[in-house]
Amino acid sequence: MIAYEGEVEVFRTNISSGSAWTPTVKGRFNIFHKLLSQTMSGPGYVQPDVPYVMYFYGAYAIHGAYWHNDFGRPRSHGCVNLSVPDSKWLFDWADPPLAAGATQVWDSTGGTLVVVHE
What is the CATH number of the domain that holds 73? Predict the structure, then answer.
């Protein structure tokens, strides 16, 4: 993953995207919902207290993953996994901003642009 301000790279890290069976959606999206943490679940898994969640398309999110350290390889259920420190950096940097004392924020007008490609 690479984060840009204009054309200037400000952050770079390895991620784990969706596996072949549960691929990450590709395209151009905006972050529309951010949460400090939440429980995520799906067929065969329940993951409590997932940190620094940033939804960009439906149920697809960028978030911290404390349960593995396999960044650089596809292995998620479709979300974009980052290390917890990297996800915190991105969460604090990306729009929409989280107000002091708030645990989540919605923005339907267009948070930070997310481009997912090969």
Answer: 2.40.440.10
